[in-house]
Design brief:
Rossmann fold; two-stranded antiparallel ribbon; 5 strands; 40% helix
């Protein structure tokens, strides 16, 4: 049976690789395999086979079928107007605002109307001492009842921990585009139960 570099413990493999210059393809090392009572001759070439190789999938390839299906659905007779996605931003953190702007650009590319509402810290003046998220619950409740809003996306973290988990479940499952409402978590472990509104207005919802 041939000896494979895969038989070398990963820790040993890593140390051996670290000793080789990247440009080297000649240097040889030997590793003793006690269970074979033989030495395995190693080079940078066969050492590259000692660990499983991963497959890199880029978003540019993965998103294509989903985008095509979404564009097809949006162009159907089901929609009398472009869907309205409401983003709720309650923090001044730059990464959250950057994420919101990415959402806006993505929506513009496929014909979804995106609106960003600033509440809490994000909507407060610089000299305002009120804490982040102070108006978030009220903003979510209003959006739940707003007929012109088809989907809601809240940018977390706001408070962090259990308080953010509570806010995730305040978002109506009918408009929760991220699926963070506890109803969706429940459905992972039980027979899927769709809210009655899904059945009554399936032809008007996203």
């Amino acid at each position: 049976m041939p000896i494979s570099a895969n038989e070398i413990p990963q820790a040993v493999s890593a140390r051996l690789k670290a000793t080789w210059p990247k440009s080297s393809s000649v240097r040889v090392a030997k590793y003793y395999l006690p269970h074979r009572n033989r030495f395995l001759q190693l080079t940078p070439l066969n050492m590259s086979l000692s660990a499983p190789q991963g497959l890199v999938m880029t978003a540019g390839k993965v998103h294509i079928p989903f985008k095509s299906e979404l564009l097809s659905t949006l162009s159907s007779f089901r929609f009398e107007r472009p869907p309205h996605l409401l983003g709720i931003l309650a923090t001044k953190k730059e990464d959250a605002r950057t994420y919101a702007e990415f959402t806006r650009k993505a929506c513009e590319q496929i014909g979804i109307h995106f609106e960003l509402r600033l509440v809490g810290d994000a909507g407060a003046d610089d000299d305002d001492d009120e804490g982040g998220g102070i108006d978030v619950e009220e903003a979510i409740l209003e959006a739940n009842d707003e007929v012109g809003v088809d989907g809601i996306m809240v940018y977390y973290p706001i408070y962090g921990g259990r308080q953010d988990q509570y806010l995730q479940s305040v978002v109506s499952p009918m408009k929760d585009v991220e699926g963070l409402n506890h109803q969706f978590l429940f459905n992972l472990y039980h027979k899927s139960v769709r809210p009655p509104l899904f059945l009554n207005k399936a032809n008007t919802q996203i």
